[in-house]
Predict the structure of GMP synthase (glutamine-hydrolyzing).
Amino acid sequence: MEEINHVAVLDFGSQYTQLIVRRVRELGFFAKLYQPEDLAEIGKPGAIILSGGPMSTSHPDAPDIDFELLKGYGVPVLGVCYGMQLLNIKFGGSVEASDRREYGPAGLYPVASEGLYEGITDKSQVWMSHSDTVKNLGESCKVIAKNQHGTPVSLQWGESFYGIQFHPEVTHSHEGTRILHNFLLTAKDLEPFRIEDFKRELIENIKKTVGDKQVVCGVSGGVDSTVLAVLLNEAGVNVRAIFVDQGLMRKNEAEEVKNNFHRLGVEIEAIDASKLFLDALAGEPDPEKKRVIIGNLFIDVFWDTVGNAEMLAQGTLYPDVIESASNDKSKASKIKTHHNRVDRILELQKQGKVLEPLAELFKDEVRELGHSLGIPDDILNRHPFPGPGLAVRCPGEITLERLNVIRDCDAIFINALKEHGWYDKVWQAYAGLIPVKTVGVKGDERSYEWATNLRAVISEDAMTADWVELPPSLLREVSNKILNEVSGINRVLYDISTKPPASIEWE
Ligand SMILES: Nc1ncnc2c1ncn2[C@@H]1O[C@H](COP(=O)(O)OP(=O)(O)OP(=O)(O)O)[C@@H](O)[C@H]1O
């Protein structure tokens, strides 16, 4: 997508850089992240943003920028934090090193309500996170905003170079998105980001790269691999989509996955490996060992089915790519989880046989792409489901009986959430099993049965999560139904633990 007038974000290492890309895309423009040393290879930018970074500009290893090349693009440039300090130095000014860090909220006072600060209110809260500050201003520099102490926090050099000391991309900068938008409005001919155009381009690229080879992909029923498989299908290439049923899916899920792909017009090969997995897991209570058994067996089953792949498609998303790029600078995408045979994939990757068409997209954009491919909402809005499936919701030994109890409880809970309009409001919900027997009474008889734990959380990125305050009437309805209908359960618990310290799943 480098041919279009996109927004090039140069990454100087700030923890917030990815957020800048997100914000720009949320504003409707296409943005892409680059390393500063790749400035010559950013195609045709319509605007350039220099991110913040952890280093001081005075550090001998501080990342630099080819200023002549930067000016040569002739487009508006915005330096954020480190980016602003670097620009000031390039314009002949100076930066004062400090070992004291300014971290937290500050008041923003624009000098005039125009340009970057058009429509921005006085005293608007912005978020600071820096130690060095600008000392002498560079050539043709004017101060365009100050903080509550009168210290310059935003500069402009000439007509089209801007700098801001604070971080507009974080939500603690209350009008940060508007400031970013104002900056983007100074750029000419920025192409709006339209998923339809993006889709067309992806399809063209897939056709070109794949030609008449066969592409293999694993489909889990989850959003990423479903969108991937439908996209490949839409491109008309020869796809072999493989679904491994490891016997750890939810109630009727394997059938549902098959039906969903049928609805989507994608043929899949479903491998029923459930007995293999259950046999391998028999008698193993240790959570780590269970994961390893599942991961390794998946790899064996998947690759035994595939044989020799001419090409492999993976549903790698943008955050995965960025994560690995900033770790090792190799820009090679992270290999997705335990699900793929890493050495096998690395080999294919070296030979240029791994296709990652979704690698420029964030999760919500993948959903949008899925939508434009005609994938129905009930598939796109599915809750995330862990790779090792119900195994992580069944502490202790895994048996078919235990899995079936979980399946029954889970189906009752999820159906109730759907019926009462809660399913789409929560990030993830499920019922698990606590395989501890406690005393109860069923009918006139004393019972001695397990407990089920219901969990419903909201989260943005799964890194943190909060439990959902579901209405007591809904919990009562679910509890009654489970206690009446699921044999083996005489207790229903609702998990009210936040993450951290608890995790979303139990294992
Ligand atoms: N049961 C399965 N059968 C076939 N392929 C699978 C299966 N589970 C996972 N995969 C493959 O491994 C990849 C990574 O799995 P992971 O559980 O991490 O899901 P994910 O990254 O959320 O992707 P998705 O949304 O497609 O599930 C999937 O995108 C898919 O290609």
